[in-house]
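Fold this sequence, please.
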Amino acid sequence: MFTLPSPAKLNLFLHINGRRPDGYHELQTLFQFLDYGDDVGFSPRDDDRILLDPALPGVPDRDNLILLAALALRRTVDQPLCGVNLSLTKRLPMGGGLGGGSSNAATTLLGLNRLWQLGRSCEELAELGLQLGADVPVFVRGFAAWGEGIGEKLTPAEPPEIWYLVLKPDCNISTGLIFSEQGLTRDTPRIKIAPAFEGDASRYRNDCEDVVCRLYPEVKRSLDWLAQFGPARLTGTGACIFGRFPTESKAQKVWASRPSGITGFVARGVNLSPLHKKLTELK
């Protein structure tokens, strides 16, 4: 029996370069992990059943990425495998743009690869994870990355490992709704990797931010408040927003002064996923 972290990610910027014929959008983004997230527990069973307890409220089993990841991996194996009890300690808000579901799926793939002793490479698991969601590969590979395509084309990156204050306004945002909005910016010119790495990601933007703020006034209010203390930005398609701070104490000071009714946390940006760090310790 063992437990693995399922960390959050931030999109330090998110540019939308166009829409593909299949409806997906071409993106450029910079992913970084946080030392904060969910936990997924793994315990083998004497039968072949795969069970998740507790169930995720409001998410039926057929849509739960943890169970979908487990079943997808088991379908790639021709030999009998033991069942597993999966447990989820949920800290990341749903619909927050922090990649919680994708992270849970990646942790499940890597955890079951270890439990079942399959010996699959990160590349193989990332390819399988892409069938579950565009953000799953970055969590499987486990390094901060420049992302292109629909977010699955990844180049390792090393953004500064600074502190972030992450706020979650009281709303849940549908990624599909945001990407279907007519007013969404879809023609941001592509930038080259080298200048983006050499520069400060705060120079760039999140192309979803204007649409999200128009549709969800609570996000705009939180963003305006956090912007008093420095650059603030939406992550992914929201609803979470984040501000950058050079030290934990400065981030905690702002967190302590937040308006009532806003949840969130302070965490450090890390370029090696806590999941991969833990897997290395377990070997």
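The domain at 1-283 is CATH 3.30.230.10 (Ribosomal Protein S5; domain 2). The mean pLDDT is 93.
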